[in-house]
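User: Structure tokens for this complex, please. No commentary.
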Amino acid sequence: EADIYQTPRYLVIGTGKKITLECSQTMGHDKMYWYQQDPGMELHLIHYSYGVNSTEKGDLSSESTVSRIRTEHFPLTLESARPSHTSQYLCASRSQTGSGNTIYFGEGSWLTVV
Amino acid sequence: QKEVEQDPGPLSVPEGAIVSLNCTYSNSAFQYFMWYRQYSRKGPELLMYTYSSGNKEDGRFTAQVDKSSKYISLFIRDSQPSDSATYLCAMSAKYSSASKIIFGSGTRLSIRP
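Assistant:
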């Protein structure tokens, strides 16, 4: 079972507010990811990290930013939320041993911007 | 053309039926294949992981890879209403720091009691 945790699970905020979605994993994985997924739609990679102080933008352009100061922690920040940011945000990390290409997801953070 | 194609469904079958979910892909370098199950408003959960060709069985689930046809399948035997979810396939090339994991768009499955 994967040990990857996201908070908050559900959040409703007003336009223009700053929000940080937290993600932590206790598996010691170097690689971590943020995906965005609208209801019933496919996953879109928005950010990834190969380790501490490494962050890259994903395939889908996003106004969010990420940081990776500690191996286990990969928060995502929106400086000024807009209704177009309403979506589910999924954090994930990747094993590098044995089944080295499996990726484990958190439960997701549902963000609604009103 | 997407690297991984997956029929979005929805697929509706009666309880107890055998379900077949499929993905096709175009990149012959893919060697690692995964199936995820995603319940509504939850994150995807890893179901099966296979390397290269062949079959892998885990309880009621069987994952099958046919690399010559670039086709993978997930079979669910004795399907239950609790199997109702979206199933995503995922795959990647031989492990390297640059290899990406590519996801299918998911198939919505509904098991009717």
